[in-house]
Amino acid sequence: MIKEEMTFDLAFKILTSPEIEGDYSNDANDPGGATRYGVTEAEARRHGYTGDMRELPLDFAKTIFKEDYWDTVRADELPNDLRYHYLMLRLTLALLKRLCGCRKC
Q: What predicted TM-score, i.e. pTM, was given to this entire model?
């Protein structure tokens, strides 16, 4: 069980740790392509980012995660023990959608 309150800020800090999403990546085997802090280039562009993905600001990534993955389901209203796990599940589902090429699943 999580002892402290799982706020968005804490969940994002864990998510962007080197053990999970880390910093910049552009792995040829990753369908997301250029990614920084877990934000794919396609997601960044949808949110209006026009720069090089290596330079994506952490605060920009944080805004994307908050708007697209946390606020859309009102995660602050979930039981504390579920908040971080729910965020990870949402990210995993987004990855699966990219892998299978699904647009509506």
A: 0.79
Angstrom distance (rounded) from CA 11 to CA 89: 13
Any domain includes 33: yes
H or E stretch at 24:
strand 24-25
Q: Which residues contact 76 (CB under 8 A, 6 or more apart)?
A: 7, 8, 70, 83
The helix/strand/coil state of 39 is strand
The tokens of 54 are what? Answer: 């290596």
Tell me if 51 sits within 8 A of 41, measured CB to CB.
no
Q: Into how many domains does the chain fold?
A: 1
Between vectors from CA 94 to CA 52 and to CA 58, what angle results, nearest 5°?
35
CATH number of the domain where residue 91 is located: 1.20.141.10
Specify the 3-state DSSP secondary structure of 80.
helix
Give the residue numbers spanning the domain of 66: 8-100
Residue 64 lies in a domain: yes
Predicted confidence (pLDDT) per residue in 42-73, tens digit: 999 999 999 999 999 999 999 999 998 899 88
